[in-house]
């Protein structure tokens, strides 16, 4: 297998049937449209990783709804918790997802089924919106990356380990990002660090590699770079990301908008650029 296509979907915020997130956003309908879009792609992803905030309040009925809307996806779906989730509730709702129990205390795991390793980190701190990694998690990550060297690796977590300039979100980011940066720098096989939480597509350098966040299939955090800006969301076009790995070329990320749009239309006609 000389290529691997990973879809990243994040910040679904699924609620109980019929309820709107923040009394305005139909997150269940948004996920349904996302799933339909994934299934209609000309190149179907090999796997999907869902990088946290899968539900709005971590309630059992929300996880039941999540399972219902993910069911049409035929490829493996790897779940991760965010600050809106509940670890025990997620494990109970998805008993067939054995990787959720690779570690007892936190939902950290490594997936070795593909040419690219997937290493997921649980950044949830109960009763807090911000995230952190415990010392035992950083030790586990160090050992896991060392054992997988030199295989190309994508590290995933919910809280982005970098400042974005969106003040109210940076206030609830990852507490000990510098410690994670140090671990990632020691393992150059890490091709990409992916995160959720921001409901936007953002990229930067981190740990000697690239780090990014992904848009939500539902609502997006308002783009306001005033450090005192209010915490607000907008109904910009929803989206997800595709991370394409090809042997010898590394990882390339594409951000896809969810919806029905005019086209595709040809650039050329009769071998000539259309005038």
Set out the fold topology:
Elements: E1 3-9, H1 27-40, E2 47-51, H2 60-70, E3 77-80, H3 87-93, E4 109-111, E5 117-120, H4 135-148, E6 153-156, H5 167-170, H6 177-185, E7 190-195, E8 202-206, E9 209-213, E10 220-221, E11 233-234, E12 239-246, E13 250-257, E14 268-269, E15 272-273
Parallel strand pairs: 1-2, 2-3, 5-6, 6-7, 7-9
Antiparallel strand pairs: 1-12, 4-5, 8-9, 10-11, 12-13, 14-15
Account of the 3D structure:
With 275 residues, the protein is an alpha/beta fold. It is 21% helix and 24% strand. The chain is built from 6 helices and 15 strands. A 6-stranded mixed β-sheet has the order 4-5-6-7-9-8. A 5-stranded mixed β-sheet has the order 3-2-1-12-13, with no helix packed on it. Strands 10-11 form a two-stranded antiparallel sheet. Helix 1 links the parallel strand 1 (3-9) and strand 2 (47-51). Helix 1 packs parallel to helix 2. It is globular, with a radius of gyration of 19 Å. 41% of the residues are buried.
